[in-house]
From TrEMBL:
Binding residue positions for heme: C451
Superkingdom of origin organism: Eukaryota
SUPFAM superfamilies documented for this protein: Cytochrome P450 (SSF48264)
Name this polypeptide is given: Putative Cytochrome P450
Gene Ontology molecular function, alphabetical: heme binding; iron ion binding; monooxygenase activity; oxidoreductase activity, acting on paired donors, with incorporation or reduction of molecular oxygen
One Pfam family this sequence matches: p450
Ranges annotated as spanning the membrane: none
Keywords, alphabetical: Heme, Iron, Metal-binding, Monooxygenase, Oxidoreductase
Family that this chain belongs to: Belongs to the cytochrome P450 family.
Cofactor(s) needed by this chain: heme
Organism of origin: Aspergillus mulundensis
Gene Ontology terms describing biological process: secondary metabolite biosynthetic process
């Protein structure tokens, strides 16, 4: 019994002791991360160097790209934005980071985007990636995409009909909303063997589900212990977190159902589309084909990235053209002089030769890619060189995660000048500028991991822009004429708010 007072005394002091030990541990952690850690030499916010929740918070706020630009303007060319994460806006870092092959592999960030199995975008295994690229390359080649033009034109005819009605009534409408539904239905046609029908039903549920998946993956990807985070998200009492998980499951169900339908009706549905290409895809070296789960994974990636990035890019391109009437008139003049009016039996201009023949239009497209890239995601790479990586005067230690965000790169004044925030396509007509600055314009990334969907995206953008500008005149609402545009993005973004316009038919082009 004599021991009882001593035990009670220890128990009484334990909360204070625990608090003291925790305080010492936290202080030691802060001192190590700020003064001893291999990345302690790099500037950045205090909290960013201590916790990955700094990055995750700004992804959740849809503003990580804007925050990164703010940090570079404050701290310089290389900024520490995580305990083991560096971000740079130096153009010379593109090749070392994204053309480093196996020595600069993808980080754990990409695991968050896996819904079925790792796909071409999210997979980190280089051997599987090389195999998948070989299997899918033919289906995404330009010659294959051109065979999909009739499917694209079917959806364009619906959009044109809607714009004609708006022209007749003179009413205002949200062009961003119309383009989002249009592109999603195109993806349904070319990637899933049937349109989703959202242009006719105005059903936006699938659009919200895609946004939710991107937000969920973007936030979880920036955090450690992803499996635990995903599990906690699935049982979270927070309504918005449960909604995000429910949206991902919904998209998985849509993809799986379309793939199963295509496989079961492969002999009946013989038209060319991307899903057929996935079902029939073989490795030219081994003859290996994709399993149904692998097809689901790739179809899921096409649905999420293909619709969101293309619609977002197209909306912003129209915004810049409509807000700058003199530029839009030059585009229309080039379309008329180069392509001529659309024939009565034509729905749209064919894609063949558009990119090469429309120099001014392509300058506008390139400037839109520069000033408002919708793919703002930090594409993290992990330094795998045992001795680390040297980029200019900066040494990046082994095991460090490093990346470049397109948005930040394109707003680096040392590359694109003090007027980098001004939309000016004329610069891209200068061959010396084009050659010099084009190295830093990477809307589809670079290297062996560059986006395989480039041809499909450019086909959608160029066919739509040339056809709609040949047929219609667009006018923004008066109160929007002086408004600047902002992109909200968890990784793949879109224009903030609505884009209300009026439209009217143009001369012969409008038929």
């Amino acid at each position: 019994m004599a021991l009882a007072p001593a035990v009670l005394q220890c128990l009484g002091d334990s909360p204070r002791t625990i608090l003291t030990l925790v305080s010492i541990a936290l202080l030691a952690y802060v001192v190590y991360m700020r003064h001893i850690h291999p990345l302690s030499r790099y500037p950045g916010p205090l909290f960013a160097s201590l916790s990955n929740t700094y990055k995750a918070y700004y992804v959740y706020k849809l503003a990580i790209h804007e925050k990164l630009l703010e940090l570079h303007n404050a701290y310089g060319p290389v900024v520490r934005i995580g305990p083991n994460h560096l971000h740079t806006w130096e153009g010379e870092a593109i090749a070392p980071i994204y053309k480093g092959g196996r020595s600069m592999g993808k980080s754990e960030f990409y695991d968050a985007f896996t819904a079925f199995r790792p796909n071409l975008f999210g997979g980190r295994d280089e051997d599987i990636h090389a195999l998948r690229r070989r299997q899918l390359s033919h289906g995404f080649a330009q010659v294959s995409v051109q065979k999909l033009e009739p499917l694209i034109e079917g959806q364009m005819a619906i959009l044109i009909s809607k714009l004609r009605r708006h022209a007749q009534t003179g009413e205002t409408f949200d062009l961003k909303h119309a383009l989002n539904l249009y592109v999603l239905d195109i993806l349904g046609e070319v990637a899933f063997a049937k349109p989703f029908g959202v242009q006719l039903t105005e059903d936006v549920e699938k659009l919200h589900a895609i946004n939710d998946h991107l937000l969920l993956a973007g936030v979880i990807g920036e955090l450690p212990c992803q499996d635990l985070t995903k599990f906690l998200s699935s049982i979270s009492p927070v309504p918005w977190m449960r909604r995000l998980m429910k949206s991902r499951l919904k998209l998985k169900g849509i993809c799986a159902g379309c793939v199963r339908f295509k496989i079961e009706n492969q002999e009946k549905i013989t038209r060319p589309d991307l899903l057929r290409s996935l079902v029939e895809a073989t490795d030219p070296e081994s003859g290996k084909r994709l399993s149904e789960e692998e097809i689901n994974s790739e179809a899921f990636a096409v649905l999420v990235a293909g619709s969101h990035s293309t619609a977002g890019t197209m909306t912003l391109l129209f915004w810049h053209l409509i807000q700058n009437p003199s530029i839009m008139r030059k585009v229309q003049a080039e379309i008329e002089s180069t392509l001529g009016p659309l024939a009565k039996d034509q729905t749209s201009y064919p894609i063949a030769g558009l990119e090469a023949s429309l120099k001014y239009t392509m300058a506008c497209v390139r400037e839109n890619f520069r000033i408002n890239p919708v793919f703002t995601m930090p594409l993290w790479r992990k330094v795998g060189y045992p001795a680390g990586l040297d980029i200019g005067e900066h040494h990046i230690p082994y095991g460090t995660n490093i990346c470049i965000s397109n948005y930040v790169l394109h707003h680096n004044p040392s590359i694109f000048g003090p007027d980098h925030a001004i939309y000016n396509p004329e610069k891209w007509l200068d061959e010396s500028w084009n050659k010099e600055k084009g190295r830093y314009l990477i809307p589809f990334s670079v290297g062996h991991r560059m986006c395989i969907g480039r041809n499909l995206a450019m086909t959608n953008i160029l066919k739509s822009v040339t056809t709609l500008l040949a047929m219609f005149e667009f006018e923004p609402l008066q109160e929007q004429k002086e408004r600047s545009v902002r992109v909200l993005s968890p990784g793949i973004g879109e224009m903030a708010g609505c884009f209300e316009v009026r439209v009217r038919l143009r001369g012969e082009g409008g038929r």
